[in-house]
Amino acid sequence: MKRLPFYLTFLFSSSICLAAENLSTIAEQSNFQKTGRYDEVETLCRNFQKNYPKLVRCQEFGRTPEGRPMLALITTRTNAFTPYLAKEKHIPVTLIQGGIHAGEIDGKDAGFLALRELLDNTATNDILDKQVFIFIPVFNVDGHERFGRWNRPNQRGPEEMGWRTTAQNYNLNRDYVKADTVEMQSMLRLINHWDPLVNVDLHVTDGAKFEHDISVQVEPLHAGDEGLKAAGKKLQENVLADLSKTGSLPQPFYMSFDKEDDPASGFVDGVPAPRFSHGYFQLRNRFGILVETHSWRNYATRVRITKNTITSILEQVARYGNEWEKIASEADLRSIKMAGKPVPVTYKTTDKSHLIDFRGYAYTRKPSEISGALMTRYDESKPQIWQVKLRDEIIPDTYITMPQAGYIVPASYARIVIHKLRTHGIQFQSLGNALNNIAVERFNATKAILSPQSTESHQTLQLKGEWTDDQASFGKGSLFIPSAQPKAALVAALFEPQAPDALVRWGFFNNAFEKKEYMEAYVAEDVAREQLAANPELKSIFEKKLKDDAEFAKSPQARLEFFARRHSSWDQQYQQYPIFRTNIFPK
């Protein structure tokens, strides 16, 4: 082979170095003491596309409340740069996001490193031959730019970082179901378009000091479609094995003690609620992976481990993605047939436990002279094997039965609900004609408990009661949401009051549980006397309740309401959940 002249070799080498330099991060340049601001993400996104025009697309998929672009790098060797082409060619899509909590920013720098290695290293070319890789360096962009020292006081590095919540103080990893934020709405729109098979959320955990450096949790595994659970277990086990080979000490559960600050209490695994990323995607019959590096490792170590995790996940998808795509499609078909069947909406961890060896440090527990509380202090110079309990037997706790036909939302509430349905890509129809006196199930709320404080800008509501048979009429413009659809489990999660992140539990229908009309006490006194005089049976019931229910007996309001509820002026819509179930398909 003829050798290039020296000067051409130099120019060629220089151009490679220049390209590599353009794609190096501030984290690398500072020996992982620092991380860059968001303008670095914008520059790198453009430069990756410029340097690899056939393999990378830099795309904006939304704007934050403060007007910053939300960016994704679409990377593949399949040329499937649109959702349509990926679906047509049956190419799995993997979405990996960093910075949902923008102080936990390992994923941003690790993702850029992993992406550069994938593009430069011919030994890993087949990874991008077999999937579309969507990398979102920073999800919480405005939070990222609330930049400063000590934004994460219990984390070692980088020197400065972003903030946990958005500019509107929302925690995006509590927003997947309620989807309040512009950022989440943009993300779900991207997800609806691309339908990623695997969705990865990169975090840094808070907590105690120990030697284990990362946890990787996957769903479906404990919850979700039965066919996908085995694949989820395989995915998790393979990633953990890959990480172990690189010298990491990974765990398959979230490493937070059962009792805060007490290592002896051990650990409890569980199923996350769908407000969280890895709890949400199993409701769509897709994989959700939560990656948590350990905050007490230095930044260089955490970025390296996160990069290894990204590479391992992409390798798993390259190897098994087509097989898992088929299982996910079969899960969608099973979901379409959920009508009339029991569906779990909550899970619990049993008391069954087993001992595990966990690599921690020697520690003491003594009352603090500062706070007065019992505090744990660790000696990192003395590694120690803890034998602690792990409770990891997880079973369904609450089942609901999917209605044979679906759910109906009255026209008066359609505007509230329709936006959520579109955001999640759920099938529904707006009724063109009124429905008169059809058989339905109405949720009979026996108790409605409002939270005393707001959570994520909502006053949450807990309902107690049960579905009962009834009849109701619905006007034109009411919504029908069929049970028979691939996202049936997500539909149940939105509309079943017992589901942990149902819209009603987030307070979207609180107005229905507020008393707006009332009877003055002096009027209620007269009404009560009239009812007692006219109805001896009612008098007997009232007297028995006075005798048996001490709380009722000592409450003037409860006693008067006993009679007000039996008067024709009582608001029959008070505390009525405004979503109905039906076994009849509207025509």
Number of H/I helices = 17
Strand content: 15-25%
Rough outline: globular
Low-confidence segments, given as residue ranges, are 1-20
Sheet with the most strands: spatial strand order? 1-2-4-3-5-9-6-7
Give the total of beta strands. 19
Percent helix range = 25-40%
Helix-and-strand structural type: alpha/beta
- Gyration radius, to the nearest Å? 28 Å
Structural description of this entry:
There is one protein chain. The protein has 587 residues and is an alpha/beta fold. It has helices at 6-22, 26-29, 38-51, 83-88, 106-120, 125-129, 141-144, 182-194, 226-245, 277-280, 299-336, 411-424, 488-495, 521-534, 536-548, 550-553, 556-564, and strands at residues 56-63, 69-75, 93-97, 132-136, 198-205, 214-219, 250-251, 267-268, 287-294, 342-349, 354-367, 374-391, 394-401, 406-409, 429-430, 435-450, 461-474, 479-482, 576-582. The chain has an 8-stranded mixed sheet with strand order 1-2-4-3-5-9-6-7, sandwiched between helices. Strands 15-18-14-19-16-17 form a 6-stranded antiparallel sheet. It has a 3-stranded mixed sheet with strand order 8-12-11, with no helix packed on it. Strand 11 and strand 12 form a beta hairpin. Mean pLDDT is 94; it is low at 1-20.
